[in-house]
Amino acid sequence: MTLAKKLGVFLFIVAIMVSSVALAALKLPEEIEAEFTQYPGSKVTNSTAAGSMFMASLDCGTDSVDEVFDYYKARIMENDWTIEFESKSENNYSIKVNKESLEGSVIVFSDGEATVVNLAIAVEE
Predict the structure, then answer these.
(1) What are the CA-CA distances from residue 122 to residues 54, 55, 98, 106, 125 (Å)?
(2) Which of 16, 107, 115, 121 has the fewest CB within 10 Å, making it most exposed?
(3) What is the 3-state secondary structure (H, E, C) of 94-119?
């Protein structure tokens, strides 16, 4: 194997290792965890902070959309959020909320294999 091929293989392996470490380290942004908490047994698949907006996606496995939505609606009520909008369909629930200088949303849906949650909190400035 040429040096160029060896270097390419080495860089590929390093990229996979870095990706694996990054995926293993994903967690909810503190701003979301403080208000909504992570669904029990779920895995964070995406976590983003952009300025005053914090977003995360969770894989909740085979738990039903109803069960996951009920969990988050209870967190919303416990933490004194005001519900601005709520929508339910067969496999897709969404809710928009606000509290003091915060706006948030919870979207729960089934992708056919798992129940997924998208959480977002924005700090109004």
Answers:
(1) 6, 9, 9, 12, 9
(2) 16
(3) EEEEEECCEEEEEEEEECCCCEEEEE
Q: Lay out the sheet containing 92-99: strands in order across.
A: 43-50, 53-59, 115-123, 102-110, 92-99, 82-89
**Cα(75)–Cα(83) distance, integer angstroms:** 12
Q: Residue 94 forms beta bridges with which residues?
A: 87, 107
State how far the Cα of 101 lies from the Cα of 98, in Å rounded to an integer. Answer: 8
Q: What is the pLDDT along the chain (125 residues), one digit of tens a residue?
A: 444 443 343 434 434 444 444 445 577 788 888 888 899 999 999 988 888 888 999 999 999 999 999 999 999 999 999 999 999 988 899 999 999 889 999 999 998 889 999 999 988 76
CB within 8 A of 13, min separation 6: which ones?
none
